[in-house]
UniProtKB/TrEMBL annotation:
Keyword annotations: Disulfide bond, Glycosidase, Hydrolase
GO-annotated biological processes: carbohydrate metabolic process; hyaluronan catabolic process
Similarity remark: Belongs to the glycosyl hydrolase 56 family.
SUPFAM superfamilies (alphabetical): (Trans)glycosidases
EC number: 3.2.1.35
Recorded catalytic activity of this chain's protein: Random hydrolysis of (1->4)-linkages between N-acetyl-beta-D-glucosamine and D-glucuronate residues in hyaluronate
Secreted found in the keyword field: no
Organism: Nippostrongylus brasiliensis (Rat hookworm)
Source organism phylogeny: Eukaryota, Metazoa, Ecdysozoa, Nematoda, Chromadorea
Disulfide bond keyword on record: yes
InterPro entries (UniProt xref): Aldolase_TIM, GH, Hyaluronidase
Enzyme class, broadest EC rank: hydrolase
UniProt protein name: Hyaluronidase
Length: 257
């Protein structure tokens, strides 16, 4: 496979702090026109070439496009907890502000509906303007399709949970509007080598071949700059011993067909 990858992250955050004015972070109250102006500016800055034909990743991580997926995590800091719950809280507040005598149950249902509708509009308008500005790029959203974070830990079931498959069905509008999919798959150094390599040995070649068979132009490997020496050594070993041979095998069979 010919890997021509230029990954960008645009539109990093709609809200950067939980302490910012809460009225401004409600998704249903998002000024869409101002958001799209900022999107256009960031795309032109990050991808100056109009004929860019690489990979472009839009990264929304501060909130999720389904109301029920915006939960707090007890294992993280209070700032993150507040940040991840502010969207549900403010969606409810807006509904109760409009309808002071509404029941809690009805308010929750209406907040969910308004949040999901607004989120859908933000996602679709964002990728639409991205595709309009850089029509030859492969556009998609980081982390989609979703999967539960403990997927693959079971010896017998390596699939995403049924609930997350239902969530993905509800977010099908994202996949239909995208020209590439960028699910988030990490190999954790915290697990044992047997846990990591069990999945790799069984599936990495098949995953590459399946992507190639479906017309994918490449795969993305990325990491962070933290512990760079350790990460570089680990990645070098992984490419040499596992990924490299699989890529060579898949490439050979694609060319020979």
């Amino acid at each position: 496979m010919n890997l021509l990858v230029e990954v960008i992250r645009v539109v990093k955050r709609l809200a950067t702090r939980a302490a910012r004015a809460e009225r401004d972070v409600a998704v249903a109250n998002c000024p869409l026109d101002k958001h799209l102006v900022r999107v256009s500016q960031q795309i032109r800055q990050a991808i100056p070439r109009e004929d860019f034909s690489g990979i472009a990743v839009i990264d929304f991580e501060e909130w999720r496009p389904l109301y029920q997926l915006n939960w707090g995590k007890k294992s993280v800091s209070m700032l993150v907890y507040l940040r991840e719950n502010v969207y549900k809280r403010e969606s409810l507040r807006l509904v109760k502000e409009q309808y002071p005598f509404i029941s809690d149950k009805s308010a929750e249902e209406l907040a969910k509906k308004e949040f999901n509708n607004a989120a859908k509009k933000i996602f679709l308008h964002t990728i639409a303007i991205a595709r309009q500005l850089r029509p030859y790029a492969r556009w998609g959203f980081y982390g989609f399709p979703y999967c539960n974070y403990d997927a693959g830990n079971s010896e017998t079931d390596m699939l995403c949970s049924e609930s997350f498959r239902r969530f993905n069905d509800q977010m099908s509008f994202i996949y239909q509007a995208s020209t590439a999919l960028f699910p988030s798959i990490y190999l954790s150094l915290k697990g044992t080598s047997a846990q990591n390599y069990r999945y790799i040995q069984k599936d990495v070649c098949n995953s590459l071949k399946q992507a190639a068979d479906m017309g994918a132009r490449g795969v993305i490997l990325w990491s962070s700059s933290k512990n760079m020496k350790q990460r570089c050594d680990g990645l070098a070993n992984y490419v040499r011993d596992m990924l490299g041979p699989c890529v060579a095998y898949v490439t050979y069979h694609i060319i020979s067909v």
